[in-house]
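Reply to dn_fold:

You asked what the input looked like. This is it:
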Amino acid sequence: MPIELIIALLAAAVQSGTPILYATLGEMVTEKSGVLNLGVEGMMMVGALGAFWFSLTTGSPWLGFLMGGFCAAMLAALHGMVCLGFQGNQVVSGLALTILGTGLANFLGTPLIGSQGIGFFRVPLPVLSDIPVLGPILFNHDVLVYLSFGLPVLIWLFFRHTRLGLHLRSVGENPAAAATAGLNVIGLRWLGIIMGGFLVGLGGAYLSLAYIHLWTSGLTAGRGWIAVALVIFSFWRPGRAVFGAYLFGGVMAFQLRLQATGTDIPSSFLLMLPYALTILVLVASTMTGRGSAAPAALGVNIPPEE
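and this is what came back:
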C-alpha cells in the first residue's frame, strides 16, 4: 500500500476516533465515581442534535458545541435521579436512557434531516502540519481534534493530582470509607454523572458539527456502545483510551474506504467490522482479567441515609 494511502488512513483514524474518545473519557469519569451508565449512545445522540440545532439558531459552532455537552448532561441527570434518588437498577436505567435519548433525538431531529449545518473545519497548524508523516496525521484537523489531544492528560491529572479527583475515585472504590472520612458520597457521584455526561455530549456534538456537518437519523451508529467497551479495554486509564479510540476509528475509516473502492467484499461484512472488534475486545478483556481493574463499588447503589 502506498505511503500516501497509509497516512490518509491514519489521519482518518484520528478524526473518526475523536468522538469515541470524548465519549469514552466521559463514561470513564462516571464509572470512576462508582456509577455505571449504559446510556452513552442515547446521550451522544441528544448531544449531537442539541449542538446542531443550537449552532444553526445562534450561528456559533462553539455555543453549539457547549450546548451538546449540556443537553447530554441533562439527560445523564435523569440517570442520576433514578440511580441516586430512587435507588434504581443502574443497568436498566442506562439501557432506558439509550432508548429514550435515541428516540427523542430521532423524533425531534426529523425536520432537520439533510440540513447543512455550520461547524468546525480543518485548520492545519503552522509548522507542525509540515512535519513529514506526523504532520498530516496529527496536525491537519479541526480545532476539536486538537482539544481532544490534551483532554486525556487533563483527566489523568484530575484523578491523580487534585483533591476533588481523589475524592471522586474514593467514592467509586469504597463509598463507606469515603463517608466515614466526611465526604459527600451522593454529591460526588452526582458530580461524576454530570461531568461524564457533558463529555459524552461533546463527542456527539463533534459528529454533527465537525465530522459530517449535517443531521441524519442514527448519527452515532453504535459509537456509544463502542465507547462503553473501550472503558474496559483501556483499563479505566485515559492514556489507553486514546489508543483504543484511534484503533476503533481506524477500523471504521478502513471499512468506509473499502466500500468506496467498490471491493467485492459484502458491505454488510464491512459494516460489521467495528462491532466485531468491540466483541473481541470485551472477550479479551475478560480473559486477561482486565475487568478486575474496575472501581470496586461500580454499579453499587448507596442509600442516601447511609
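The chain is about 70% helix and 0% strand.
Hope that clears it up.
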